[in-house]
Amino acid sequence: MSSARDTVLGRIRDALALAPAPPVVVPRAYRTGRTLPDDERLALFTDRLLDYKARVRPCTADRTAEVIGEALREHGARRTGVPAGLDAHWLTGYEGEVREDHPEVSAAQLDTLDAVVTASAAGCAETGTIFLDGSPGQGRRALSLVPDLHVCVVDLSTVEAGVPEAVARLTPERPTTLISGPSATSDIELERVEGVHGPRTLVVVIRTDA
Asked: Which is one Pfam family of this protein (predicted)?
């Protein structure tokens, strides 16, 4: 004897077979093509990141290693994970232990790291969002979620004014992670708790001439 659930699902399947749904056309007439001068994009992106309680460190590309080293020292990071494809020069200003990630590293092993340093694929100034797509310099999603500190390098040239413009930079087939500030949530009394679903601290190094 079939259960009530099976009966209901069977009736739904029969109804769909008798009256197939017409193809749905999703409108894609998004507002696109918005631009902002570099200084305005930087100011808006920084404002949104700070509003999310991220730490922002603008610098020129030739100071990348210096600024990353300063951020890691400031937070007392002794062991730092990096994706296999990260520019090795970026860690030359860091005196601690650098561990290169690979698929066999477990979540428990990632949890022994104090920090992670990654590159990024794109950014959106309007929403203060950073996009990671799993490229060699960004690594797998677990690497950017488990350690308590994430130092993320964003080139200003990849930061777009709006969401459609930023999404257009992405490859749809790649796994995309969207980051808007440190991980945080609020309970029913609206008390903010950070570090619940990812890094408690996000440091964004914005390379203004890259």
From this structure: LUD_dom
